[in-house]
């Protein structure tokens, strides 16, 4: 036995111990700042220009429509901008009706939320913004009894819709469960927040409407009353009533499409509106509100199925053939990430939709990624540099299906946890799939150089507490995207491949 061999043997226990310690440390750190598993979150900012997020003006605050006897409680007290933990949503059934094909820009909503009371309280606090509530009813789920003495208040300061008894007492007891139904209406928006609309001209120069959503980080409340914080994960069953000339897609596959029942027409004995259909989707796994999404359009799609996951590229008809490269890349990337992470993509499908207007380059809604049109649907002779950037963007969004969607941060303090991992894995998986392009060299120029150049940013810690909507949006910056990606890359190299993958895999599985 040589001395060299003896020395190697002597070092081995320490080496193994250190590796196990690294895994333990990595997993503990990540678990501490993330929400269990089973949901997602995040916007897709332009990875090329994340600083643009910090200058984006969020939607202005407008009161939820309230009856004259409902006062603005913000005048009396200043609540925390964080939701109380006394109640928790279990299941949302969201039904939205839009008639934009008739150039009606108002939508109506029916939101039913099953709520678990975790601590006896006198109120249920939800987010709601720029919507007009028309009716609120509540049932105790066990007895099916309707609560008769309830009213609601809107608190503008936190965009809170507060359900409470008319006489103040602890009406909601720990352990009880309720079904809260809220009828409301709102306006489809022209900016890319909440539920918004856009148009394009078809081959006959006719105007075609497209309705889409952008909820990250705090715009789900523009579309429906909800617990609009990432840690309040719940199942969603979504129904959309829309023109029968259009189709609807959402996070999950369609469960059924049926003729629309028009409540007003029913009064005349004709309850079916022949021009409208209702599309209902399968119920989602538990997920954060900011990852809910849908698109209503007359788009066409190409598709491919691999390992039981159907992927589709949706475009307007005139761009029908321009998504083939993106489809091929998406199929390869999902398979590569499944193999690398040891965790299967959790849904049955993943759609990619090219929109004329989209906030940022793309948005990683779970199962339904939205893109700015020219980032997804391109001619075959498109510039190679642009193509590569678009591949990295798409792979960033696909990586989010695990980092952010499956496992989410408890609060936006840890926005870097989603963006840093998605940015790093966007590059990493692209490098693994297309080694000939030496993408990690591009990472050094595109990410690392900017991440450590103080010309590009206001310096702050990666983990950084924020509270109001403007501050939350501002965390989607170079620090969360690029500096965090550099730190994660450092972990990867310091821990070595086996330890890093083991730690990440455990993080995603817990
Ligand atoms: Zn991202």
TrEMBL record:
Membrane topology, from the record: Lipid-anchor; GPI-anchor; Single-pass type II membrane protein
List of catalytic residues: 397
Main location: membrane
Co-factor binding details: Binds 1 zinc ion per subunit.
GO biological process, one term: proteolysis
Keyword field: Aminopeptidase, Glycoprotein, GPI-anchor, Hydrolase, Lipoprotein, Membrane, Metal-binding, Metalloprotease, Protease, Signal, Signal-anchor, Transmembrane, Transmembrane helix, Zinc
GO MF term (any one): metallopeptidase activity
Domain (Peptidase M1 membrane alanine aminopeptidase) ranges: 326-510
Residues the record lists as binding Zn(2+): 396, 400, 419
Subcellular location per the Swiss-Prot or TrEMBL entry: Cell membrane; Membrane
Domain Aminopeptidase N-like N-terminal: 89-291
Pfam families: Peptidase_M1, Peptidase_M1_N
Cellular component GO terms, alphabetical: cytoplasm; extracellular space; plasma membrane; side of membrane
Signal peptide (residue range): 1-38
InterPro entries: Aminopeptidase_N-like_N, Aminopeptidase_N-like_N_sf, M1_APN-typ, Peptidase_M1, Peptidase_M1_aminopeptidases, Peptidase_M1_dom, Peptidase_M4/M1_CTD_sf
PANTHER family assigned: AMINOPEPTIDASE (PTHR11533:SF299), PROTEASE M1 ZINC METALLOPROTEASE (PTHR11533)
Family to which the UniProt record says this protein belongs: Belongs to the peptidase M1 family.
UniProt-recorded name of the protein: Alanine/arginine aminopeptidase
Record organism: Bactrocera latifrons (Malaysian fruit fly)
Lineage per the UniProt record: Eukaryota, Metazoa, Ecdysozoa, Arthropoda, Hexapoda
